[in-house]
Amino acid sequence: MTWLTWRQFRVSALAVFAVLAAFFVVLAITGPDLVGRTTFTNEDTLYVSTVLAMYLLPAVLGVFWGVPMVTRELETGTHCLVWNQSITRTRWLATKLGIGVTAAMVAAALLSLAVTWWASPVDALAAAEPEASLLTRLSPVVFGARGIAPIGYAACTFVLGIAVGIVLRRTVAAMAVTLALFAAVMVAVPLLLRPYALPAVEESVPITAESIHRIIGNESGLEAITVTNPAGAWVLSNETVDSDGAVATSLPDAVQGCLPPPPGDRDSAAPPPPDRQTATECLAQLSDLGYHQRVVFHPGNHFWPLQLLETACYLAVTALLGWFCFRRLRHLS
Amino acid sequence: MMALRAKGLGKKYKRKWALRNCTLDLGRGHVTGLVGPNGAGKSTLLNLASGMLEPTTGTIEVCDGVPGSGPAQLAKVGYVAQNTPVFAGLTVAEHLRLGAALNPGWDDALATARIGRIGLDPAQQAGKLSGGQRAQLALTLGIAKRPELLLLDEPVAALDPLARREFLADLMAAVVEHGLSVVLSSHLVADLERVCDHLVVLADSQVRVTGEVEELLATHHRLTGPRRDLDTLPADQQVVSASHTDRQTTVIVRTTAPILDPVWTVGQLTMEDLVLAYMSAPVPGRPALEVLR
Predict the structure, then answer these.
(1) How confident is the model at residue A284 (pLDDT cuts 50, 70, 90)?
(2) Where in chain A are the domains?
(3) Interface of A with B (CB under 8 A)
(4) Per residue in A292-333, pLDDT tens?
């Protein structure tokens, strides 16, 4: 059965690994240039493509490895041939799942290893200099493109492809559904689940001229300020609270004058806006009014615990989907 | 020792019964023809026997085991499904390799010899074979695993008349050589006539008649005579079908006793007549003996 599974699987397997190999070569050539760089932006083409590749890979594995592995047999009727050799359908699926999941996890592990290595100077820079406003490796988008979580995504999407294929029995429909489910999970988990997977750290930061990072306002006045993020952290909220501990929905009138609204066209004679230093010093009086800044965040050292937790969850879902596949298999014909 | 034994076997798809209340005993060493119109439940019965489907009601035993219950049971039953599926991307030789890898009882010498005799090129991709060659390849896989019972679902449906004849002759040679039991289905009686010694007629998801071909032909008679009421027939004559014109009545009856009534002209039935009579006969249990055509 191993031979037959490999024989059916080898073209798509080799295609994916060939593309990965080409990508590794590009990373190996460009990687050393990043070491020691102090300026970098998240818009760098190669940086964006590494992140994209990390999310594309599980999708490709689910859609082009997982789905056709069963639906092609069901569509062409070859399952009738193979299920009537002296081998149970349970072993047939176990072999397919075993080989497929292993290959998917290896592919994701290799890519994640390469990308994590390639981006390590950038991640170090992001963690060391909060002012550089680079995405840290804990930030939602980058988190799923580093470490061991992609291995969990790959295994899970692959088995999802098989499960959807067993239910729908149509290749194209199953591909579309698998892709849609994968995208939904990839959006939902970082937004709805990951922030609460571990208890976040809550910190009260005094508002000083130095700690103010951004000033947010609109035409009717100043709305909010944020303070500088803790180094390497994933900040969930950064909000001003008053002396009673309630969240301030707007800044008090006392500081509205610190930074006047931008002049409209009609009022060209308005005085020039104060410079940043003056504005922040003026805003620092919020501290005297009893206001302070509350920052809720996952510190940088939450990275590996969160990665482990997320990988474990995806592997658990993988196991659950696998169990579902074996259950449905008995009633297939 | 039974090749296939079904008791009250039924299979329901959503709301429609594909097979109902099927009770069958097929002995070993026979070639049984399963005949009936399209949608009569032939494929369903074969799928149940191979373990591809699970019965909704009743039980089925094949070679003294529950179909599809394990590798040992699967090894005992060969099944060539409708349209004889093969892996399009694999070569003929690779099909033999997969047969060898997946069947403990695989007879490689037999498979290689068969492929050679049929004239299949081992290096050819199965997807590029003609319908007849594909059927032969699928049959080779079925025979070379050396099953006790071989199930064939419309194996010749895709073949031209010449290929049909060759395929069936070839099948018969394999049956004689290896002492296989065979159940093969077809909706064409002519295909079965030459090869079957037992017959099962399915119509309307039910078994209509089953038995040895020779015995069936010996006990069924076509009676032709002046028009009369069928209620006047002797009790041991079971009416299968009847047709009336203004002056004449033709009945097909089943009886082991000789026909003594001198009014009747007694005619012999061919297998096709017999099958058609049962296929067109009303379902037992409904008001019978309506005029048919």
Answers:
(1) confident
(2) 2-199+300-329, 201-260+271-298
(3) 1, 3-4, 7-8, 76-78, 80-89, 91, 330-331, 333
(4) 888 888 988 889 999 999 999 999 999 999 999 999 998 887
Decide if B168 is inside a domain.
yes
Q: Which alpha helices (DSSP H) does A35-88 contain, by range? A: 45-60, 67-76, 78-82
For residue A140, the surrounding DSSP H or E stretch is: helix A140-143
In terms of residue numbers, what domain contains B48? Answer: 2-203
Q: CA B200 to CA B44: how far, in whole Å?
A: 14
What's the mean per-residue pLDDT of chain B? 87
AA identity, residue A255: V
Domain count, chain B: 2
Mutation to test the B interface, candidates A2, A76, A86, most B Cβ within 10 Å: A86
Return the biggest CA–CA distance within chain A.
91
- Decide if B290 is inside a domain: no
* Token couple for B221: 């008679």
Q: Worst-scoring range by mean pLDDT, A190-204, A303-317, B91-105?
A: A190-204
Both B115 and B252 in a single domain?
no
Task: Say yes or no: B160 and B136 in one domain.
Answer: yes
B79 and B117 in a single domain? The answer is: yes
- Measured CA to CA, the distance from residue B269 to residue B217 in angstroms comes to 6
- What is the rounded CA–CA span in Å between residue A212 and residue A291? 13
Asked if the interface predicted TM-score (ipTM) of this complex is over 0.90, the answer is: no
CA distance B217 to chain A (A): 35
Q: Which of A57, A95, A17 is nearest to A322 (CA)?
A: A95
Summarised one tens digit per residue, pLDDT across range A226-279 is: 777 787 888 888 888 877 777 777 777 777 777 666 655 555 555 666 677 777
**pLDDT value for A21:** 95
The reported pTM is 0.87
Q: What is the pLDDT of residue A321?
A: 96
A93: enclosing H helix or E strand: helix A89-128
Give the one of B53, B71, B86 whose C-beta lies nearest to A333's C-beta. B53
Pair (B254, B114) in one structural domain:
no
Neighbours of B1 (CB within 10 A): 9
Q: Is B70 an 8 Å CB contact of chain A?
A: yes
What is the DSSP track for B233-263? S-TT-EEEEEEE-SSEEEEEEE-SS----TT
A86:B87 CB<8 A: no
Q: Is residue B287 part of a domain?
A: no
* Residue B71 Cα to chain centre, angstroms: 25
Q: Does residue B185 share a domain with residue B58?
A: yes
E strand spans, B122-162: 149-153
Q: Is residue A282 within 8 Å of residue A120, measured between CB atoms? A: no
Give chain B positions within 8 Å (CB) of A8. Answer: 87, 89
Mutate to test the interface with A, among B11, B50, B52, B83 (most CBs of A within 10 A): B52
pLDDT the model gives residue A104: 95
Question: What is the separation of C-alpha A168 from the centre of its chain, rounded to a whole number of angstroms?
Answer: 29
Partner residues linked to B25 by β-bridges = B5
